[in-house]
Q: What sequence folds into this?
């Protein structure tokens, strides 16, 4: 499959270049846009692997929702880039140490997996397990074998969401809010006072 | 066979894409005119009536006018992003049509996760607006794009849940399967439960779901009464303020292509796609091409019907206030559609014998 190989190299190159551009772009909004490009082309890589369900979910969740909120926040930042760049040299050694440790760990994991783990025995990506489509195959394991993990992950997300709401919710006492039920339940009798005014006298207050 | 070689396949696919593209662009030209005519009709005006008979060529005149004008890019604008934004909007609006089943056997790409693909592409549409608003480097477009981002993200949630109810009924993520399952008359359409008389109780949930989908698609396409990203009385023209000539045209076409796409999506998910509203055993003896055209006619008629609804809503409903828009999305539509997913799921397991 020559065409698939070409598609892989193009998508992989775009992913890597976009990933680099996320770090090197001077403007944070451009960084986010490159991040979206990286997400999108990695979704393309998933499609090449035969995991079209994962690819679509990646686009819906990360590109469609998470990155929009990212962009939303970053667009509103008013960052002084010159000031931001001043600390660069100071933190460079520490950054290099952290990056080196992470890279070393990833190489170790990759080598140990390649030497003894799943990669050695598997014959390649399992695209069609039985007569099911991709989404069905995921559903069958997710809701049977991994049900408790799936539910636990859901609970963790729920707790995180409630935590975020609790941290940010403030009840301001001096803000007037619209109460639609009150508005629609209002009658002329409660909302109006009809006053008969004698000519030439007016009304007081 | 030449058509099964890689070169032939490529030619065939490109031909199909071009055919769909040209069909959409041509229909858009007349639907846009219809939109303005309906709007004018409600307000007892005549609408465009100068170019061509009954103003039929108005859209083409507008097109030429846009293309021939100078592209003005504001001095402080981020030039690349500024020009990329309308292109993204335009491309995505047309890219989504790739999986739409237009008629029996007429679909450019029949993929297994068609519904998810459509959902993914329509959730990307927000980037055109956000990037355009930000890159203009101006206050009104920026406010417009912020509004649009919040609005589209909010209504996508309820659209997603409504789509899940349809997926549960159809038992498939493939759009062609979803349409084929609704064959045999309007009582088999998903809006009425998708299974004739025995699934009719599900209609109690599915009819409100189709209404929620329609209203959410109004918000998703920035149509009145949810056109706050471009509210002309507050933000001049929202994210489009700094755009002129061809980039503006691309935004405009992208917006209308999205509207027609949403009409097609409502048709496909709830109203039987290209299925006729009555049983059609007689098409079995027809030439397949004739049967395809017969199905395509119904698909197109349904799209035009929903486009008419979009146009009438624009003419008769006043614009929402922003907090009311958010309230409707998060406090009304989201809980309702979430309950509906649970109900339809329960119906599939305990109710209908599938």
A:
């Amino acid at each position: 499959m020559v065409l698939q190989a070409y598609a892989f190299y193009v998508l992989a190159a775009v992913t890597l270049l976009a990933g680099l551009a996320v770090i090197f772009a001077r403007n944070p909004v451009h960084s986010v846009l490159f991040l979206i490009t990286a997400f999108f082309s990695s979704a393309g890589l998933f499609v090449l692997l035969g995991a079209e369900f994962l690819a679509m979910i990646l686009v819906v969740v990360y590109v469609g929702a998470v990155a929009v909120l990212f962009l939303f926040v970053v667009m509103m930042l008013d960052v002084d880039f010159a000031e931001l760049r001043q600390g660069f040299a100071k933190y460079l050694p520490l950054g290099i140490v952290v990056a080196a440790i992470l890279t070393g760990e990833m190489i170790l994991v990759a080598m140990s997996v390649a030497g003894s783990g799943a990669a050695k025995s598997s014959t390649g990506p399992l695209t069609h397990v039985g007569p099911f489509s991709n989404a069905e195959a995921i559903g069958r394991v997710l809701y049977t074998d991994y049900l408790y993990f799936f539910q636990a992950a859901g609970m963790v997300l729920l707790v995180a969401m409630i935590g975020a709401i609790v941290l940010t919710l403030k009840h301001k006492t001096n803000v007037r809010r619209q109460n639609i039920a009150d508005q629609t339940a209002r009658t002329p009798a409660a909302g109006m006072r009809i006053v008969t005014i004698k000519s030439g006298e007016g009304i007081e207050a | 066979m030449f058509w099964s070689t890689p070169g032939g396949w490529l030619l065939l696919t490109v031909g199909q894409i071009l055919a769909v593209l040209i069909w959409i662009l041509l229909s858009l030209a007349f639907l846009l005119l219809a939109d303005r005519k309906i709007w004018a009709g409600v307000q007892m005006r005549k609408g465009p009536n100068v170019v061509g008979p009954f103003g039929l060529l108005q859209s083409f005149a507008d097109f030429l006018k846009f293309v021939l004008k100078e592209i003005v890019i504001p001095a402080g604008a981020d030039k690349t992003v500024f020009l990329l934004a309308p292109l993204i909007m335009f491309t995505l609006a047309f890219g989504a049509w790739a999986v739409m089943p237009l008629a029996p056997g007429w679909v450019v790409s029949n993929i297994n996760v068609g519904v998810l693909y459509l959902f993914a592409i329509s959730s990307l549409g927000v980037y055109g607006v956000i990037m355009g608003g930000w890159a203009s480097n101006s206050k009104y477009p920026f406010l417009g794009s912020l509004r649009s981002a919040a609005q589209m993200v909010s209504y996508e949630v309820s659209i997603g849940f409504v789509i899940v109810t349809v997926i549960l009924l159809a038992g498939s993520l493939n759009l062609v399967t979803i349409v084929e399952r609704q064959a045999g008359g309007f009582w088999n359409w998903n809006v009425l439960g998708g299974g004739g008389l025995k699934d009719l109780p599900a209609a109690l949930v599915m009819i409100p779901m189709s209404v929620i989908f329609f209203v959410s698609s109004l918000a998703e396409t920035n149509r009145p009464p949810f056109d706050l990203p471009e509210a002309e009385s507050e933000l001049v023209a929202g994210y489009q303020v700094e755009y002129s000539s061809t980039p503006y045209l691309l935004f405009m076409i992208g917006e209308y292509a999205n509207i027609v796409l949403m009409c097609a999506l409502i048709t496909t998910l709830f109203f039987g796609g290209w299925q006729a509203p009555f049983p059609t055993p007689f098409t079995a003896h027809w030439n397949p091409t004739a049967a395809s055209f017969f199905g395509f006619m119904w698909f197109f008629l349904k799209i035009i019907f929903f486009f008419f609804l979009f146009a009438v809503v624009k003419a008769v409903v006043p614009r929402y206030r922003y907090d009311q828009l958010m309230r409707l999305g998060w406090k009304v539509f989201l809980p309702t559609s979430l309950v509906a997913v649970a109900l339809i799921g329960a119906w599939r397991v305990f109710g209908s014998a599938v």
Q: What stands out?
A: The longest helix of chain B spans residues 6-42. The CA atoms of residues 97 and 261 of chain B lie 7 Å apart. Chain B has two domains: 1-68, 73-350.
